[in-house]
Amino acid sequence: MGRPGPTGCTVLLLLLAAGGRGAPRDAVSCSQGLACRLLDTDVLCGTEPAAPGPGLAVLRLRLEPALRCSGPDGCSPCLRARLHLGLEPEDGDAGTAAEPRRDVTALLLLSAHGYASSRCVAVEVRASSALPRGPLGSVRFRCFEAPLGSELHVTAYSSAHGRRRLSQRQRVPDCSWPAARAAIPQCQVPRLQVSPGLTAVLVEVQMATVGLNYTLRLYRNHSHGTGGSGHVVTASGPMNYSVPLEEVLPCLCLQVWPEIQDPLRATLCPFSHDAAAWERLWVQTQLVLHDVGQALSCSISAPCDLPAELVPCWSPAPAAPCQALPGLQQPVTGQGPQEFQALQPHPNLCVQVRSSGRVQLTQCLREREHPAMLPGHADDILLMEPGGNTSLCVLQQGSCTPLASFTAVGDGRPGLLEQQLQEDVASGQCVQLWRPENGSGVTLWACPMHKYVRARWALAWLGVLVCAACILLLLLLKKEDVKGWLKSLRAGCGSKAPLQGRRALLLHAAEPVAERAACALAAALRPLGMVVVAAPGGGSGVAAWGPLPWLHALHRRALRSGDAIILLLSPAAEAAARRWEDAAGGASRARDASSGPSPLHDPGHEVEPCEAFAAALSCAIPVLSVGAGRYVVARLEPTVTSVPQVLRAAPAFVLPSEAVGFLQALSGRRGCRLEPHAAAVAERLRRALRE
Q1: Is residue 10 part of a domain?
Q2: Same domain, 229 and 291
Q3: Helix or strand run (H / E) with residue 108
Q4: Residues in a beta bridge with 84
Q5: Closest-CA residue to 352 (of 399, 282, 292, 284)
Q6: Whole-number pLDDT of residue 459
Q7: Which of 235, 466, 563, 586 has its Cα between 20 and 30 A from that of 182?
């Protein structure tokens, strides 16, 4: 075989890669029978002259994904080009037998074009002329770099005469390619883990490379965009971030990515189905009605998109159910004003926001600052005129009642207002709230009812006057009772003697402080009109005959007359009540321990003859236990700190500081101004206690 001559063909391989000049890591290899050498990794394609004579032809071009790595974790995606070559026949020798030829040397050009840059490489290929015509072998070039998921346009041709070109478009693999997930840094995106807590939600960035910076972004996802830049946190390696619960809404999304060129982002929206997040969203959502113009409109302000619908409804009273207007509901479309075309404003009109079959928000026009400026009245009724039908019906309680069966006012007879309401609609006295544009469908009317209700109120007032006349007649028949009632009114709260006609039995112990307080209290109550009978603790007078018979007589008279019974608690009186309480408790425990029932133990038989207060307890406690009698406990401060358990059934007051409540309990009236009288009583008691 002869030496290769200068007339051999040169095949040009043009390669366009992202990033300008090629790296020295480019490599070229040939199949058996061919020799190839990489001449230049960045040449200007399209300006080379055509080589004379026969040469090598590019028969087929194939592109394959590959990785170009500078280390175990420093790989980038690229495309590997594989060209199948053959001999081009000389002019005039097609179909003739091949003669011995010189070796053929060809120049191949390979170019690659992307959206950001272009690149072209040149490869020298040598083939023996002794090879038969047809496929000779293949040349492999490695490789064209490009960003993940981008597209390259690769063209291959030779410098031989005729320059047959082959072109192919191929997309560079993205991170879905298994070989790229572990080798390309852009594909090594960390994982987001969300853990809810009592006051915040913890966001964990897991599987992050230590030493590599990451960006965590929190934003609200909307159908019309991501709603701004959101909140951005930057950290190195794995991180934890706490989100307050008030910021956790259904549209809150998380995104994390490494701070490298063209990184992939891991996105997570974990709260879209969180019931608590939806509850917080509805709390932060506002619905505002507008009555400006000729149609009802409303505005919704919410941090997230709302999968809900707006439903106009009719509510005749603030606490009444809202009757949905048929055929007027519409979906919520983003933020801002939304209008119900041709729906006239009325004080009874409301708008509900319904989501998943539940009413989340309700706003009524009557809640505005000036509802009286709207046409119509609060007592109007809502009439519906079905399309294609002249009959009217009343919308109420989820249904439409025909006027022939309507019984809202009057004497309750069906159809009483049918003719009047039809005349009001025909004469224009009713407000037309809604009328469809095409004339088909329902028409809504708001008709006044106040003129029909007047007759009903006249009958009601007549009944009230009749009842008042009957009461006056009864009072005249019982003239003496009326005089007594008026006399009690004259002796009421407004007189100088608010306790006029009242009587009280004052029980106290036999000790100096109690006797001084009892005398001061009786002297202070006497100017107020109250007659006070004191049960002294000494042994003089009838008390010397024995306290029990004497006190029983006083006690029975006070109970029979409805008098107040005042138990004045001094230290000695408190001690007597504690002994009575202990004796009663011991008897109760003994009764529980015995097999059979025993009579209630009354410590009164153990009372000494001169201990009047202890004897009074034997009279008072059994009556107190059944809730009878008008007992009042007065505790002297500061000598007595608490009321014994056996006396807690009666109202207790600390004297002299709670003199106002004490006087109100004695008077049996509420709302009386007793402060001036209470101040005088308190001052007398303070002087007595200081002595």
Answers
A1: no
A2: no
A3: strand 104-113
A4: 60, 138
A5: 282
A6: 59
A7: 235
Asked whether residue 682 falls in the same domain as residue 571, the answer is yes
Comparing 19 with 456, the larger pLDDT belongs to 456
List Cβ neighbours of 59 (8 Å cut-off, separation of 6 or more). 83, 84, 85, 86, 135
Cβ within 8 Å of residue 235, ≥6 positions away: 205, 213, 214, 216
**Predicted TM-score (pTM) of this structure:** 0.47
For the chain, what is the mean pLDDT? 78
Is residue 216 one of the residues assigned to a domain? yes
Query: Among residues 181, 215, 230, which one ends one of the domains?
Result: 181
Question: Of 365-379, 434-448, 516-530, 677-691, which gets the smallest average pLDDT?
Answer: 365-379
pLDDT band at 101, cuts 50/70/90? low
pLDDT, tens digit (0-9, with 9 covering 90-100), for 11-64: 333 333 333 344 557 899 999 888 899 887 778 777 666 666 567 888 899 999
Residue 452 dihedral angles phi and psi, to the nearest 5°: -85, -20
CATH of the domain at 199: 2.60.40.2150
Say which residue, 54 or 140, is predicted with more confidence: 140
Q: What is the DSSP string of 74-107?
A: -EEEEEEEEEEEEEPPPTT-TTSPPPP---EEEE
Query: What confidence tens digit (pLDDT) does each residue in 476-501 have?
Result: 766 655 554 445 544 455 556 777 87
Among 181, 202, 223, give the residue marking a domain's end: 181
Structure tokens, 595: 């097999």
CA distance 574 to 639: 10
Q: CA angle 284-288-292, nearest 5°?
A: 160
Instruction: Measure the CA–CA gap between 539 and 532, rounded to whole angstroms.
Output: 20
Same domain for 366 and 389: no
Residues ≥6 apart with Cβ < 8 Å to 585 = none
The CATH number of the domain holding residue 44 is 2.60.40.2160
Residue at 84 is within a domain = yes
pLDDT of residue 91: 56
Which residue did the predictor score with more confidence, 462 or 266? Answer: 266
CA 224 to chain centre: 23
Split at pLDDT 50, 70, 90, the class of 162 is low
Tell me the Ramachandran region of residue 378: left when phi exceeds 0, alpha when psi lies from -120 to 50, beta otherwise: alpha
- Domain boundaries, position 210: 189-276
Confidence of residue 372 (pLDDT cuts 50, 70, 90): low
- 550 and 523 both lie in a single domain: yes
> What is the pLDDT, as a whole number, of residue 507?
85
**Cβ atoms of residues 613 and 604 within 8 Å:** no
**Is 369 inside any structural domain?**
yes
CATH at 551:
3.40.50
**β-pairing verdict for 630-636 and 564-569:** parallel
Beta-strand pair 151-158/104-113: antiparallel
As for how many domains the chain has, the answer is: 5
Distance CA 174, CA 140 (A): 23
Token digits of residue 633: 């406990």
Statement to judge: residues 570 and 612 lie in one domain: yes
Number of Cβ atoms within 10 Å of the Cβ of 344: 20
Report pLDDT for 526: 85
pLDDT digits over 317-357, tens only?
888 889 898 888 899 987 778 888 788 888 889 999 999 88
pLDDT in tens, 503-513: 888 888 888 88
- For residues 46 and 169, state if they share a domain: yes
What one-letter code names the amino acid at 174? Answer: D
Which strands make up the sheet holding 200-206, listed edge to edge?
Answer: 191-196, 200-206, 239-244
Longest CA–CA span in the chain (Å) reads 166
Query: Kind of pairing, strands 358-364 and 349-355?
Result: antiparallel
Interacting residues of 276 by C-beta distance below 8 A, sequence separation 6+: 245, 248
Same-domain pairing of 153 and 253: no
DSSP code, position 544: G
**Would you say 13 and 54 are in contact if contact means Cβ atoms under 8 Å apart?**
no
